Amino acid sequence: MKRRTLLASAAVALAMTGTAFAADEKTKVGFVYVGPIGDGGWTYEHDKGRLAVEAELGDKVETVYQENVPEGADAERVMTQMALSGADLIFTTSFGYMDPTINVAAKFPDVKFEHATGYKQADNVAVYSARFYEGRAVQGHIAGKMTKTNKIGYIASFPIPEVIRGINSAFIHAKKVNPDVEFSIVWAYTWFDPAKEADAAQALIEQGADVILQHTDSTAPQAAAEAAGNVITFGQASDMAEFGPFPRVSSIIDDWAPYYIARTKAVMDGTWSSTNTWDGIGPGMVKIGEISDAVPADVKAEALAMVDALGDGSYHAFTGPINKQDGSAWLAEGETADDGTLAGMSFYVEGITGDIPN
Amino acid sequence: MDLSSINPVLLIASLMVSATPILLAAIGELVVEKSGVLNLGVEGMMITGAICGFAIGVNTGSPVLGFMFAALCGALLSLAFGILTQYLLSNQVATGLGLTLVGLGLSSLIGKPYEGIKSPTLQKMELPILSDIPIFGPMLFSHDPMVYLSVALIAATWAVLKYTRVGLVLRAVGESHDAAHALGYKVVRIRIMAILFGGACAGMAGAYISLVRVPQWTEGMTAGAGWIALAIVVFASWKPWRVMIGAYLFGGVTVLQLNLQAAGAKVPIEVLSMSPYLITILVLVIISARGNHGAPAALGKIFHASR
Amino acid sequence: MIRLEKRAQPSQFWTLATPFLAVILTMIAGGIMFAALGSDPFEAIRVIFWDPLFSEQFSAYSRPQLLVKAGPLILIAIGLSLGFRAGIWNIGAEGQYIIGAICGAGMGLAFYPTESFIIFPLMIMAGALGGWAWAMIPAVLKTRFGTNEILVSLMLVYVAEAWLASVSSGLLKNPDGMGFPGSRNLQQYPAAANTEVIAGTGMHYGVLTALIAVIFAYVLFSRHMLGFQIRLAGEAPRAARFAGVNPKRIVFLCLGLAGALAGMAGMYEVSGPAGQITIDFNSGYGFTAIIVAFLGRLHPVGILFAGLLMALTYIGGELASLMLGIPAAAIQLFQGMLLFFLLATDVFINFRIRLSTGEVA
Fold first, then answer.
1. Nearest to residue B26, comparing CAs of B215, B182, B250?
2. Are residues B60 and B227 in contact, defined by beta-carbon separation less than 8 angstroms?
3. How big is chain C by its Cα radius of gyration, in Å?
4. Tens digits of per-residue pLDDT, B253-290?
């Protein structure tokens, strides 16, 4: 039986037409979004990046986007159509777009692709992600200092390295300032389901948690904390400032704008190359939302000092000694975690109770 | 694991809040189905109610007005379904699914200016005297008004269906539209009224999510609650009080599984997250094994008064 | 006053004409909406309906994609139409689709990296069996305990979704995937890849199966006793019983076939266009297929066209959003309108409109 890769022959013909249409003086930048722009979180922030590109580069660029693109076959089609329509640079903003991005990139060697949060590169595919765990470290510090019940609730989405990294980072820094602190982790198995997130927050609060950290996108946990009255929260993915100064005392914000502008410029002046970017607080990809006055002044000062230290690289959020959950040694005194281990993190650090579901 | 950290009083109090959107939407759908119409567009009407209620709540500062407007919008949207299925005799299943598409699309178009705004929300209404009762007070009588309203709606629907002429006619239409028509009842008009009631309830259910539960507007925020409401009506065998049992059971298991996780129970998480669905199926199997299926006989069938 | 009068026989003219009428009405209403949103309505309509098929820039790519998108919809809808005709309300095809994908991919991955021609057929069987087994749950509960299949099949969608999330971060996780969730990519495992039967047409094995299913269903309903029994069970259950139709057998058959076809659709999708099992692998084909089944008036040939039309609005909608910046929500609303008009105009097939002279209806 003669098997051929799906659409292989069509692709060759298409790749040629694709470049023909790309011969336009404006640089066309495409964005593929996994959610709606109005999700107020992940996709919303990526779209802010897109708008920043337009604002910065004016009529030298044209941006196009597609919302609500399911991962898999649909993503591959959307990317191909974008490339066919003459896009010079395409940002694909969800982990699940990894293989489709690689597939489409192989068909359009002259179009540059940028895949968020993945690990597969090619000559015309760069990858980028943000070190959100740096922000989690700051949250952990504030949480550890401010909790009175010593119980911190964590609403997690799915057991993937990104989420596990955040839990570990927050726990390490909470524990450092408050040895009695405990984490209660609830896996919501969703990125976005306000009702379920509200229930999860409620359950944690009722069981004595007075700090709620969330790795899901809706503001429902904020509202639950506000109703409870004595619980603090942190904004996730976007600032959620409307819940400040209390219960929301700070937040982690994804700021993709500087990266998107820089990469678009690189395509314009022909200096673009396939890179692997993993930026944190320093280059401004991760921002810490304003720490409100509900946080005591000394804690706020410490938190800001930590932000600076993480930003200038003098401090790494995963600095030894750190043991794994089973007690085995992971990082020795003063040793910092390597990016490979962090990228694929699938274990809890010592002190966290419970198992990672799989 | 520390199960003693789960407080049953708080658990029941929070499951009542958690179940309220499903309860509201389900009681509306029950009336619709009792009249013999299957409207699968609950999700679409809910999300439309969510944004309409939110918009009015923000602009007027009054969540009560928001709820009223949400009911109106839900009813208006359901009118589209009513006209299509009752006058143009379209297929109810497909029209209902289409209504969901329309509702989702429409709501996010309307909602663009309202992203990232916080709305005024309902205050808790501690019922005098009753809320002072130990245990039961904080458990049952310290909620926001919509929780009481949802329970009152159940009671009212039950009483109307069981004891009034209106209820009798509605049921007759749902059991056999031809017979009801022969008796001189206006089948189409009665069904339209039922559909409007269902739309209004779904609209309020959506507004409960955007004005009380979250309270904020984001696209797709009902996240499938409308489908659960549909399932609860079936679960209830089309009986009002059982809708309440079903909604509270579903909400209860959801809240309990999250509580168990928070308490560190040694149960696989995926089993816990499946549990609300599995337990609902299980309980329905037990109920139905005892033989009691009250699906209205004319459910989903197209009526045309041929002479 | 206007009233409807039932035709003695369905109008042949309107059976063929209503889809065109509905599309024209949708173009008008949708055009007004697009204009209100600030886009050029004529351009928008052209991009949605014309460009995917005939534009020089896109059609070479999007025409095959039409089949890729329509294939699973048609395959699932054919299965569902059997049940809907028999009055069995399986609205959980999405769950059967997921389980079929998990079983099919699991079968393939179990052999990794062996190369053998037998693997792909085994995967098809595993996918079909998985979907079948998932649909058997409501079937058994319905026949044994009288449990309503709407609730059971719908609830099982959520159970399947939770299981999907679990296997993609556990059992089927790619061991070389750096700890990220998601299985190995079956496109890169030739023995397990669902490739095109004729290269460059988009016609992969799933589309082929869908076409076979259309023919099979057509023969079943027009020529076969069983097809008659299914229809009878739906339209006149009592008469069916007198005619010796075993209602339980019909339930098992209809749900089982629908499950197997949905399971196969999931398997073809995961091994071909999608490539891998991920947390969000399912994208609503099982629910959209319900719409397709009714748009096609539960008739196999109708379903074929309805599936292609739905696929066209998806692909055209994507192009409109890409080229003209129309929000995804407006496209969704547009699809809803099309659906409404298609359903509404169907009334002309069985009824004629009469202006009556004021007598009370």
1. B250
2. no
3. 22
4. 999 999 998 888 888 888 888 999 999 999 989 888 77
By three-state DSSP, how is residue A215 classified?
Answer: coil
Q: How far apart are CA A44 and CA C324, in angstroms?
A: 20
Chains linked to A by 3 or more Cβ pairs within 8 Å: B, C
Sheet holding A125-130, edge to edge: A61-66, A27-32, A89-92, A112-116, A125-130, A276-279
Give the ipTM of the model, two decimals please: 0.89
Which chain B residues touch A if contact means CB-CB below 8 Å?
Answer: 5-7, 10-11, 14, 17-18, 21, 108, 111-112, 115-118, 121, 209, 213-216, 218-221, 223-225, 254-255, 258-259, 261-264, 268-270, 273
Closest to A72 measured CA to CA, from C123, C108, C187, C287: C187
Cα A117 to Cα C250: distance, rounded to the nearest angstrom: 49
Read off the tokens for A255.
Answer: 């700021």
Q: H or E segment at A234?
A: strand A232-235
pLDDT tens digits, one per residue of A179-233: 999 999 999 888 888 888 988 999 999 989 999 999 988 888 998 898 888 999 9
Q: Is residue C102 within 8 Å of C277, Cβ to Cβ?
A: yes
Minimum-distance CB partner of A3 among C182, C195, C315: C195
Write the single-letter amino acid at B282. Answer: L
Buried b or exposed e, range C3-38, using 16+ CB within 10 angstroms: ebeeeeeebeebbeebbeebbebbbebbbebbeebe
- Report d(CA C106, CA C116) in Å as an integer: 16
- CA–CA separation, B49 and A333 (whole Å): 57
Q: Give the DSSP letter of residue A282.
A: T
Pairwise pLDDT comparison (A73 vs B23), residue with the higher score: B23
C227: closest CA among C87, C91, C85? C85
Where on the phi/psi map is residue A334: left (φ > 0), alpha (ψ -120 to 50), or beta? left
Residue with tokens 């009592």: C238
A80–chain B Cβ distance below 8 A for any pair: no
Please state the three-class secondary structure of chain C as a single string: CEEEEECCCCCHHHHHHHHHHHHHHHHHHHHHHHHHCCCCHHHHHHHHHCHHHHCCCCHHHHHHHHHHHHHHHHHHHHHHHHHHHCCCCCCCHHHHHHHHHHHHHHHHHHHCCCCCCCHHHHHHHHHHHHHHHHHHHHHHHHHHHCCCHHHHHHHHHHHHHHHHHHHHCCCCCCCCCCCCCCCCCHHHCHHHCCCEEECCCCEEHHHHHHHHHHHHHHHHHHHCHHHHHHHHHHHCHHHHHHCCCCHHHHHHHHHHHHHHHHHHHHHHHHHCCCCCCCCCCCCCHHHHHHHHHHHCCCCHHHHHHHHHHHHHHHHHHHHHHHHHCCCHHHHHHHHHHHHHHHHHHCHHHHEEEEECCCCCC
**β-strand A248-254 against A232-235: which pairing, if any?**
parallel
Neighbours of B305 (CB within 10 A): 15
Q: Which of A352, A341, A301 is nearest to A145 (CA)?
A: A301
Give the number of C-alpha atoms closer than 13 A to the C-alpha of residue C9, restricted to the C-beta side: 3
- pTM of this prediction? 0.91
Contacts of C272 in chain A (CB under 8 A): 6, 73
Integer Cα distance of C97 and C267 in angstroms: 8
Total residues belonging to chain B: 307
- Residues constituting chain A: 358
- Residues from chain A that touch C178, judged by Cβ atoms under 8 A, are 119, 161, 340, 343-344
- CB A38, CB B108: distance < 8 Å: yes
Q: Which residue of B has its CA nearest to C154?
A: B231
Contact residues on chain B for A238, CB-CB shorter than 8 A: 116
Let me know: does A213 contact A154? Beta carbons within 8 Å. Answer: yes
Amino acid (one-letter) located at C156: L
Extract the tokens encoding C348: 């002309």
